[in-house]
Amino acid sequence: MSEAPNNAERERLEAARSRSADWRLWGPYLAERAWGTVREDYSPDGTAWEYFTHDQARSRAYRWSEDGLGGICDREQRLCFALALWNGRDPNLKERAFGLTGHQGNRGEDVKECYFYLDALPTASYLRYLYKYPQAPFPYGALVEENARRSREDPPFQLTDTGCFDAQRYWDVDVFYSKAGPREIHIRIYLKNRGPDAAEIHLLPTLWFRNIWSWGDDVQPPVLQATTAPDGAAWTVEAQHPTLGTYHLYGSHPAELLFTENDSNAALLWGTPNPSPYVKDAFHRRVVQGEKAAVNPALTGTKCAAWSHWTVGPDQHAMVDLVLSAEPLDAPFARSERTLSVRQSETTVFYDDLLPEAGATDHRILRQALAGMVWTQQFYHYDVERWLDGDQLPPPESRRQGRNRHWRHLKAHDIISMPDAWEYPWFAAWDLAYHCPALALLDVDFAKHQIELMLSDRYLHPNGQIPAYEWGFDDANPPVHAQGALKVFRAERVQRGTGDLDFLQRVFHKLLLNLAWWINRKDADGHNLFEGGFLGLDNISVYDRSHPLPPGHSLKQADATGWMAMFSLDMTVIALELCAKDRNYEAMAIHCYKQFLAIGEAIAGNPETGMPSLWDEEKGFFMDLLVTPDGVGHRIEVYSWVGLIPLFATEIVDRRLLANAPRFADLLSAHKGGLFRGSTVCLCPDWENDRGEHLLALVDHTMLPRILERLLDEEQFLSPFGIRSVSRIHATQTHLGRIPGIGEALMEYVPGESNSPLFGGNSNWRGPIWLPTNYSLVHALEKYHRFLGPDFQVPVACKQGQRLNLAEIATLIAERLVDLYRPPNGTPPPALVREGHLHDDVHWRDLLSFYEYFHGETGEGLGAAHQTGWTGLIANLVMRRYRKDVTPWSGLDQGTEAAPIDEIA
Fold it and tell me: Please, are residues 152 and 757 in contact by the beta-carbon 8 Å criterion?
């Protein structure tokens, strides 16, 4: 039997961890879109989409970050590289992806391009990106006009609907990046003519500096200049930067070098004089408009491109090699072929080691999903104080009372995992916590860094709030960071055999501040029932929870309260883990657990005051409570994630944890039964299992079957593709009667896109399938199974009443989610049904778009098409099928008495 090949990428990750080699210096950190972001908005009314448009982007220098097509940059985005293309017919160079703004699209913002993140290693030592470029004029006008004609009820009009790919008249632009070393990157570009006739294409690989010299900080400007090419190279550009140092870009193909400055064309945009005759849009003017004077004949500047013109026959390709290196190379392409070949092989080894037993379909799902997790790691730059006060562009006076004015301390200059590099090119805090389990499969150190970043003094508000997202840092996101920290900690314990208690200690102290913020700010009455408002659940209630109710009315949210119960338990378990290092943390474990007990007591209701429980014993479900000025509570009979999220408040404490916390063990004994004022809400079970474990949960073994009865009914929550956000019961049970403070309440089941702009525009919650909450549900059920064991079974409606244990139920849900991307019987995967007409094309059928959410009946992908941030969790669910050795209950059948609850999937 031959010895398995070394996992070179794991070795590079360890080198990066030990700082012996900086393999993370370069990566796909260049956004797909920087225009239309809050950071670039200097308008008086905060209309970011309209202030800086796609059409302006080719002529207007950015203030905060750059974008490009399939590009890379260093971690501080000083030097950028990306593609520019022209098919000889378009009105402008293709330098960045095109899409509609939130006000242009009939379904909100929407990228109108076809590009795919096909492969990636976590150190970006190997990257592959595919862009499909029409040979006909790109239909900019048709995409804008047709979507403007369509109503909310119509599907969006996409690029594939325009006919521009008919008869395969398009280019596959396939880009490969392979690192020979941390500062030596070999780039290969294939221009593949898929059409039946010869076609022309202009290629402009572009190198440029992010503009920081115009900020007025007395920064020494960097410089690009043409230099003498060594043997084997057709041309060379030298890039000199005061902090990055010197780099050299070598090209193997003949090309005309174009140089300009990365400065705005002020004459075009604002009618004011340009600081130089050479401005940002020079290459567009030179190539498309034939304006030779637009570029600098001295072959120097801060932006350059190597322009070549190709005519390629049908089904033929042209190939271009480039090398970007910090060291000057005498023979830059001598090892290009080998570097690319070796990195491709190492990528296969890396993913084969990660999932050795998977079939081809599941392996492709995992590999492309995780590739997207790497490609959506982006440089994010936002100094809120400077943005509020202005730099070279004085802000309007209205900004002082506008968005993010309370976040002057926030200074971001980091690589962050984004939900989507085009539609969401900014971090979203709770999304990021959900990215981390998928990131931990690839690179547990980066996942830990992401958890800590949001809790650092540059992000976390002094009052303890975690910033939500740049459109409104003040918004409340669900408190899931502690859960994310635990998942990453446990993943590392599986991978390395030991958990990083120093990491847990650092995040615990910051999370205590966040826990206090929630308790003090989102529990208005001090009753331990929480009012988080929006909480990302756009269309899941009967009114917009971001808006205030009439005076004296308040909404006690089952989901916000469930999230807080989960947060308290997570903090309890983190403190217990830390007791192995320092027994002083036992007091904090007790404190956090008592917070959980107080929340559970509040959920149970108070018969003395007439406040009912959030748990409806008759219906067997948790519900929001509307409290009127007289103190009377009214349940809102909605069946949605609002009532399922309390299930997530579930943790197991084993003998290993209790060994270092005797007072906590006594507290558990004192609260056995967990009944407050005669309620049926569980806070701690009546027994220990045969391993001496305790289940800490809001939902006990008597309540769980009642919830599962609804959850596993295909006429209610269970879709063929996971758990619906809203029960299908609301397809008929729409009128909920009159609710004080709200009026006539209506709750609809809308399985696809929202039919109302009320709650969030192109809302992703009413009816559709959303990966993160499904993922949390699967893990909650696995914890219940660990405690209750295989003999705890419930009848399952979708299995004609067959009794299944909780591990089997978790598997049932997880497999339906992965089925979104499995092609049934040779037909397109359900998620890609809109592209079904392309499924028979060998050049399309294996390309996966990871959508934001999915239709509750058909599984069709909806929303953002490159939402690998949270839909990347599908990789964890694929892993779960094959890697039973790392499930939370692994090792327990071998007599392990105090196995930690480790998880990797």
Answer: yes
